[in-house]
Design brief:
This protein is an alpha+beta fold and 217 residues long. It has helices spanning 2-29, 63-69, 203-211, and strands at 73-75, 91-94, 98-102, 107-109, 112-114, 133-140, 151-155, 158-166, 177-185, 188-196, 214-215. It has a single domain, classed as Jelly Rolls.
Length: 217
């Protein structure tokens, strides 16, 4: 009896021991639960947009004076004189599409009349003679080329614009005044630019010469 009791106790102890071991093994073999890692979305890369390059601007200019000697000082144009008779001794320059008259002894070529002959002491405008007058002219097919400062007027019944600028001769190669005149005729513009030395500012003579310009068929 005693021996059977001891055997029963030992068997019960073995069962308990084995149960504990199995539970420990099961516990060790269970996977560990992990929390998912949430990553923030990447910050987008922002490439700066380059600014537009500055646009170069060119100041507006009108006629031949601005291109040669600068803008000058705009002054009030003198009153247009009434048309008078052209002296009989005046010369006539004839081109394929126009004629223009000028005082006797003046130099004339296509697009220019001048009170002196190039090569006789001075080249026109470089430097300009103190007693010199020069009128350049051209016919242009483009829209109204008159400068913004221009004043509207009628020239022998035709629409026109004019601007007169004054200069310091010591700073403008001897030129004291420039008169720009733009006349519209049949969709074309005849542009006259009169240059005057300080001793020869003669607006009446300028208008006399301009009045003799005649287009030819």
């Amino acid at each position: 009896m005693r021996l059977m009791f001891i055997v029963s106790v030992m068997a019960a102890a073995a069962i308990v021991f084995l149960g504990c071991g199995s539970a420990e093994e099961v516990s060790q073999s269970e996977p560990q639960a992990t929390s998912p890692t949430v990553s923030a979305p990447p910050t987008p890369s922002i490439t700066p947009t380059p600014t537009d390059a500055p646009v170069a601007t060119t100041p507006a200019g009108g006629g031949g004076s601005g291109g040669e000697i600068g803008p000058g000082t705009v002054i009030t144009p003198p009153p247009k004189p009434s048309s008078g008779p052209i002296p009989l001794d005046w010369g006539t320059f004839t081109a394929r599409d126009h004629t223009i008259r000028h005082p006797a002894g003046w130099y004339s070529t296509l697009g220019r009349v001048s009170s002196w002959t190039p090569g006789e002491g001075d080249v026109p405008a470089t430097p300009f003679r103190a007693d010199g007058i020069r009128i350049d002219y051209s016919i242009r097919p483009e829209p109204n080329p008159a400068p913004k400062e221009g004043s509207a007027l009628l020239v022998d019944g035709l629409s026109g614009w004019e601007v007169v600028r004054s200069y310091d001769p010591s700073l403008a190669r001897g030129i004291a005044q420039v008169h720009e005149l733009f006349v519209e005729r049949d969709g074309f513009f005849t542009v006259f630019v009169g240059y005057f030395g300080p001793d020869a500012i003669d607006e009446d003579l300028f208008w006399q010469i301009v009045s003799t310009f005649e287009p030819t068929p």
